[in-house]
Amino acid sequence: MTREDLIKDLQDLVKRINSSIPTGEESDDLFDFVCDEVLDRVIFYLNYFQIDEADRYDSLVPMERIIARVIDGIYTKSKTDKTNGEVEQGINSMSDNGQSINFSDKVKLYLNTATDQEVFSGFTDLLNTYRLATVV
């Protein structure tokens, strides 16, 4: 199985869980981004980057439903923040004479700064059974 095949399977599962996600020809960039990011986060959490890429995605198949539920949770949180009027992307801070502007992207910021327990929202116990020891 390739990464693209796994992402397609995950997207199909998430769309079955959450009927508000566009299906068919409609593309949702946020949904695609969240799927990619969560898959990467799961691979690093489980230490599956140690597995040869040809076998890595086959190893994740038994966890598809768990990963799909994590994706749905993060996507739903991101969509809720967006519909509540919170800025998805915007200026985080500015300074005058130093002429620096810092931009923020809430979804990327959340995925980059949240702990594994926050991202996986209760699924860490289920994922821990698949976790590999780190080989140095």
Give the structure's gist in a few sentences.
With 136 residues, this protein is mainly alpha-helical.
Structure description:
The chain is mostly helical and 136 residues long. The two termini are 27 Å apart. Strands 1-2 form a two-stranded antiparallel sheet. Helix 2 (29-45) crosses helix 4. The protein is built from seven helices and two strands, in the order H-H-H-H-E-E-H-H-H.
Computed CA radius of gyration, to the nearest angstrom: 17 Å
Number of strands: 2
User: What's the end-to-end separation, in Å?
Assistant: 27 Å
Helix content: 55-70%
Give the overall form: globular
Largest sheet: 2 strands, antiparallel
- Residue stretches low in confidence (pLDDT < 50, at least 5 long) are none
Question: Given the helix and strand composition, which structural class is it?
Answer: mainly alpha
Mean pLDDT: 82
SSE ordering: HHHHEEHHH
Figure out the total of helices: 7
Strand content: 5-15%
